[in-house]
Amino acid sequence: MDPSMIAIVAVIIVIYLLSSIKILAEYERGVIFRLGRVLPQPKGPGVILVFRPIDRIVRLSLRVEAMEVPPQDVVTRDNVTLKVNAVVYFRVVDPTKAVIEIANYLFATSQLSQTTLRSILGEAELDEVLSQREKLNVRLQAVLDEHTGPWGVKVSMVELKQVDLPESMIRAIARQAEAERERRAKIIHAEGEAEAAQNLEKAAAIMASQPAAIQLRYLQTLVEIGSEKNTTVVFPLPMDILSNVGRVLEKLAKDA
Length: 256
Prior knowledge:
Helices cover 55% and strands 23% of the residues. By secondary structure, the protein is α+β, with helices and mostly antiparallel strands.
């Protein structure tokens, strides 16, 4: 054979081998189709050989993807209309399934997230959506992970991002919160009055057993008034004197 032909063939082979070399990053895997049939195990990371046109490679990333779910119109179980969006965190755990079982796992996961968000929140009441987000997040993650598992996709976390309420509902919640604060204030005030009444009852019982305690209390009150440097003069007058005067006046009226 002509040496020049041998050199040309050798150059073609070298170029073909060099073009067959593929480098996959640590987070990448390559699903190889050889003559239309997928190889049992994906290739990578590192240097691999893809012999075109016999082989065809599909690269997939194994890193966690963060996908935002667009705002969805949700009607809760108590007939309140909301706009809710969320964030879904997922990753490919089986590259072969992600290529064979689903045409576009990103688009499919996005659409499934939107429908699942509407259906799950539609079964909850407004108070649950506002106060029990962690519970709803766990439920959303479990449902999505169950449906994406056959695609080789693992949903690791779902977070409700924002809940938009109608203006009328915001005003109603504000009125409810204000009424709740007033109710608590009245309860606290009533409990304070009841406790004060009990303490006054105990103090009255002690003073009734010791008449001198009443006089000491009168003197202490005078000291407190005098410490304020005012011109008010207070003369303590026991209530039993007033009752005695009343009885005397009543007796005089009967005699007249």
